[in-house]
Amino acid sequence: MGLIKYEKRRREMNNNNILEIKDFSLAFNINNRVVKAVDEINLEIKKGEFVALVGESGCGKSLSALSILSLIPPSSKILNGEIIYNDKNLLALNIKELNRIRGNEISMIFQEPMSALNPLMKVNKQIKQAIKAHKKDDLNSKAKIYKMLNMVGLDDLDRVYNSYPHQLSGGMRQRVMIAQALINNPSLLIADEPTTALDVSVQNQILQVLKDMNEKLKNAVLFISHDLSLVKKFSDKIYVMYASMMVESSTTKDLINNPKHPYTKALLKSLPSVDKKGQVLDSITGIVPKLEDRNNNMCPFAPRCEYAKEICFNEKPKLEKMGNSCLRCHFAKELNK
Amino acid sequence: MSFIKLENVSFSYKNDLILEDISFEILRGETFGLVGNSGSGKSTIALLLLKLVTSFNGSIKFMDKDLSLIKKRSDLKQFYKDIQIVFQDPYSSLDSKKTVGYLIKEPLDIHKIGLKEERSLKVDKMMDLVGLDKMYKTSYPHQLSGGLRQRLAIAIALVLEPKFVVLDECVSALDISIQAGILNLLNYLKKKMDLTFLFISHDLNVVGYICDRIGVINDGKIVEIQETKTLFDNPVDIYTKNLFNNSYY
């Protein structure tokens, strides 16, 4: 017994990761063919880290995030892999154990605050629900909620506290959602495109709130977005996904200044900005392959890649480590001498 | 030469003032950007310019002609030929039951331009210009990807050789890797066909890249109009400052 405890502690000390996704694959059955929507992805989140997961629509970024809390659609099937949180494999837990973690140790906010909040329930009751579900102290929950609403940048607290979601603006609703997600002081907050449905100026405020909370409460954040130019401004680490595969991950600084995968390189070149005014943007030819057309035995980016050779079409690239980066490319070394 | 001129334009809908005393000019050959939050009135301005909404106060001039004075059938026809719009969502703005070739040819049929045989040639030329392969001519919109659909929408708007095109959030629904291609196409077509653009968007990176001058609109009022570079480096108005300086755009 003592040895197991010691072993556990040793692992914790070596390992600052609060969440580790290891070789995780998720598949759908389309026309009697098994198609991987998430293909052997690896992801690590350290305590208090702000991690971004970026990719175009349909690349599997949301599915990966949903799998962390086992919120995947029933038609999907987990093929292999582990999602380790606090030495527990989340995929192996039963529903009771999962519910103890959901909204408590790991919570999630979504893109559409309007559809994610219950329209028939006042703000205070929705947030109280989250406290009650995990049997945290009920006596001063009101004070707790006020404090949290204030922290996420809402004023006019009495009104918000007693409002229904439709009486609030989009930005306020998103703040309420963040407050609800953080009320139990989770160690990880998953934010699935939380700003996409909001106006630019409100977007910034919400990002600022997430960043502030990340600094104050030390909760790690997994921020999912399609917008690379947005996440590069505030995340510690970026993971880039393309057509089911995790193509590259690195610290934000390295990924932006020194991208290694051809997709990341091309993507960064194609981003419009004021500084590129008057220049022709380098666009990536072709389109993202549809889910049913994906072949998991090749590099998914090969048909659009300027460096692609025969091997790219015949073999899936292995995960390689280079400095701070991890990437899947057959020519990783040749391209980054 | 002022190409489009709005003077003290106000518009209200059911007692709500949507636009308040808007005045600005769009010069010939430039790309003028309109930035603002949703509900600030960006798209309403587009509707007014297209004469889709006519009950407003103030005056709008298109090539020195007052919009409210364009009434004769022949004038209207010319007007609708000169001014076109591309919408945000290529999925819902195309007729799903018509083929690509038909959709591009339809405006030519309606405006009775050229002989019938010439029209088909013109469609081919237009498809070539926007980068749509000929093989898609008999396809339906749902068979195209988002990027190709937006190219189709652009082809339909440009086949009448308009002088002025309103681009209402026309790249917002596209993936990043596709966006760049459409932006390049717009810049190319603008030069090639001598167009003037009104580019409406909430994406500051895109607006900054493509626009020559930008108007910032907040709550139905234009708060600042500047050259793109100046606006990004040195915003004056408080609202604009907030938008640009504290922003993660």
Summarize the structure.
With 337 residues, chain A is of the alpha/beta class. Chain A has helices at 2-14, 61-68, 95-101, 113-116, 123-133, 141-151, 157-161, 170-182, 200-217, 228-231, 252-257, 262-270, 310-314, 332-335, and strands spanning 17-30, 33-46, 50-54, 76-85, 88-89, 106-109, 188-192, 220-225, 237-242, 245-251, 319-322, 325-328. In chain B, strand 9 and strand 10 form a beta hairpin.
Fold and architecture overview:
The complex is a heterodimer of chains A (337) and B (249). Chain A is an alpha/beta fold and 337 residues long. Chain A has a domain at 3-105 and 186-246: P-loop containing nucleotide triphosphate hydrolases (Rossmann fold). Chain A is built from 14 helices and twelve strands. In chain A, the strands form two sheets. Chain A has an eight-stranded mixed β-sheet with strand order 6-7-8-3-9-10-12-11, sandwiched between helices. A four-stranded antiparallel β-sheet of chain A has the order 2-1-4-5. In chain A, strand 4 and strand 5 form a beta hairpin. In chain A, helix 5 (123-133) runs parallel beside helix 8 (170-182), helix 6 crosses helix 8 (170-182) and helix 8 (170-182) packs parallel to helix 9 (200-217). The longest helix of chain A has 18 residues, at 200-217. The model of chain A has no long low-confidence stretch (mean pLDDT 89). Chain B is built from nine helices and ten strands. Chain B has a six-stranded mixed β-sheet, with helices on both faces. A four-stranded antiparallel β-sheet of chain B has the order 2-1-4-5, with helices on one face. Chain B is globular and about 55 Å long. The model of chain B has no long low-confidence stretch (mean pLDDT 90). Chain B has helices at 42-49, 73-82, 100-110, 116-130, 146-158, 176-193, 204-210, 228-233, 238-245; strands at 2-13, 16-27, 31-35, 57-62, 65-66, 83-86, 164-168, 196-201, 213-218, 221-227. Chain B is an alpha/beta fold and 249 residues long. The chains are: A alpha/beta (337), B alpha/beta (249). Chain A binds chain B through residues 56-57, 199-204, 207-208, 226-230, 233-234, 266-267, 270-274, 276-277, 280-285, 287-288, 304, and chain B through 35, 37-38, 145, 147-148, 175-181, 183-184, 187, 202-206, 208-210, 228-229, 232, 242-243, 246-249.
